[in-house]
Design brief:
about 140 residues, alpha+beta, 4-stranded antiparallel sheet
């Protein structure tokens, strides 16, 4: 995967690959991006954090992070684990947009590859200041 190659000199290359795969797969499976002539966009930025954003065409509801429960057996617990896994790797995570215009799901990974003790529990509405605003969405007032 090209994203793994882009981040090959960092310890997080495999995490970047996982996040891009998960977010792109969700865009195709759960939005108009997976329909005939559909498309999605991948945004990558390497700064203090590695920013990964995937924008879809919307249309089939909103992306949801489901709490993972080891007490619920498969297959009842199968859907929704991918975004949960992304939040466990991410330093910051968010979902922007709406079903009519599309969503951007984004994550920021620590460049050093260190895991976090307390992954984000609340999804922020927008990327942190200084990060690109996916899909041209306006940045909220400070």
């Amino acid at each position: 995967m090209f994203t793994v190659l882009l981040f090959a000199d960092l310890e997080i290359d495999h995490k970047v690959g996982f996040v891009v795969t998960e977010l792109a797969t969700n865009a195709v499976r759960h939005s108009r991006s997976g329909e005939h002539k559909g498309s999605f966009a991948v945004e990558l930025l390497l700064d203090d954090l590695a920013y990964i954003g995937v924008s879809d065409l919307g249309g089939h509801g909103c992306p949801v992070v489901k709490e993972h429960s080891r007490d619920v057996p498969l297959p009842e617990n199968e859907d929704g684990r991918g975004l949960w896994a992304v939040t466990q790797m991410a330093t910051v995570f968010g979902i922007d947009g709406n079903p009519a215009e599309g969503h951007t799901v984004w994550a920021g990974l620590d460049r050093t590859g260190q895991s976090r003790d307390n992954p984000p529990k609340v999804t922020p509405k927008h990327p942190p200041a200084g990060w690109p605003v996916p899909n041209g969405l306006p940045r909220p007032p400070s």
